[in-house]
């Protein structure tokens, strides 16, 4: 939570202030067990703080309980791996003797890139107990701090769909940029282009596979994603790069090889 406040994702207030705030609702936080990578690219466990917006759902009073699910858009990025496989086939079909280079970029704090409305933020308040820890930013000397979460909550039912909608708009914009004949990536490179490790290529002795005729043909373009350039020290609030530099510069993840892919045979 200290990092969320420092980066402007959370706004600390007193619990008395939270009690008087219009539309205010307080929900507990939890921990989601996940995995990440270390400096060598090995998978290691991690814990992500979640906001339990389903609390009190048995009474039908939680935020998630009030969501009108039929109105929630589809989560398109949930099919990312399938779409990548289709894209690989499409590229190989039209380029039977060319190498296919792929790069995977992890968005750092993806949900924290999306703001919520003031009314929604007031409904996503968490209370923390500092145990008199002087390193925790507190508006008072009390050990209770209410934090208004002003970004997309990790625990909100419609949050994945909200991010998916935003991603599609960004993808379309990036796609237009890539196909723009006036854009020269060498004159105007991506801000983090120099952080990408050297490409790892398969041996020349490995033949290219043959792509069979597709049942459905795709348009002849690819899509990527972009965020506002980082102004570094000129940012009014500290702002990390959109792409995870720790993962972007990791040589073990620099190429998209079969060893990087994990799939379930039951899907």
Write the layout of secondary structure elements.
Blueprint: H1 2-6, E1 10-13, H2 15-20, E2 29-37, E3 43-51, H3 63-66, H4 80-94, H5 118-122, E4 125-129, E5 144-149, H6 159-178, H7 245-248
Keyphrases for this structure?
267 residues; alpha+beta; three-stranded antiparallel beta sheet; two-stranded antiparallel ribbon; 7 helices; 5 strands; elongated; disordered C terminus
Tell me how many strands there are: 5
Q: What percentage of amino acids are in beta strands?
A: 5-15%
Order of strands across the biggest sheet? 1-5-4
Order of helices and strands: HEHEEHHHEEHH
**Major sheet:** 3 strands, antiparallel
**Spatial separation of the terminal alpha carbons:** 37 Å
What radius of gyration results from the CA coordinates? 22 Å
* Average of per-residue pLDDT values: 78
Structural class: alpha+beta
| DSSP summary: helix tally | 7
Q: Poorly predicted ranges (pLDDT <50, ≥5 residues)?
A: 222-226, 253-267
Shape: elongated
Helix content: 10-25%
Description:
With 267 residues, the protein is of the alpha+beta class. Helices cover 22% and strands 12% of the residues. Strands 1-5-4 form a three-stranded antiparallel sheet. A hairpin with a 5-residue loop joins strand 2 (29-37) and strand 3 (43-51). The longest helix has 20 residues, at 159-178.
């Amino acid at each position: 939570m200290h990092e969320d406040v420092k980066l402007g994702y959370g706004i600390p207030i007193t619990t008395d202030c939270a009690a008087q705030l219009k539309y205010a609702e307080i929900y507990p936080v939890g921990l989601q067990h996940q995995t990440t990578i270390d400096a060598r690219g090995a998978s290691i466990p991690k814990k992500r703080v979640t906001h339990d917006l389903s609390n009190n759902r048995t009474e039908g009073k939680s935020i998630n309980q009030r969501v009108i699910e039929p109105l929630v858009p589809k989560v398109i990025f949930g099919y990312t791996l399938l779409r990548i496989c289709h894209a690989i086939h499409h590229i190989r079909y039209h380029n039977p003797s060319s190498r296919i280079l792929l790069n995977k970029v992890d968005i750092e704090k993806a949900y924290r890139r999306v703001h919520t409305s003031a009314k929604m933020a007031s409904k996503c308040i968490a209370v923390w107990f500092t145990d008199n820890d002087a390193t925790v930013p507190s508006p008072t000397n009390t050990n209770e701090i209410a934090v208004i979460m002003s970004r997309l909550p990790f625990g909100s039912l419609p949050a994945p769909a909200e991010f998916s909608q935003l991603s599609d708009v960004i993808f379309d914009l990036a796609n237009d940029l890539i196909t723009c004949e006036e854009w020269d990536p060498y004159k105007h490179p991506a801000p983090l282009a120099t952080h990408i490790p050297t490409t790892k290529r398969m041996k020349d002795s490995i033949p290219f596979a043959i792509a069979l005729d597709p049942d459905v043909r795709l348009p002849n373009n690819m899509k990527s994603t972009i965020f506002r350039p980082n102004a570094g020290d000129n940012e009014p609030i500290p702002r990390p790069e959109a792409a995870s530099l720790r993962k972007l510069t990791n040589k073990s993840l620099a190429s998209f090889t079969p060893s990087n892919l994990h799939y379930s045979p039951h899907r």
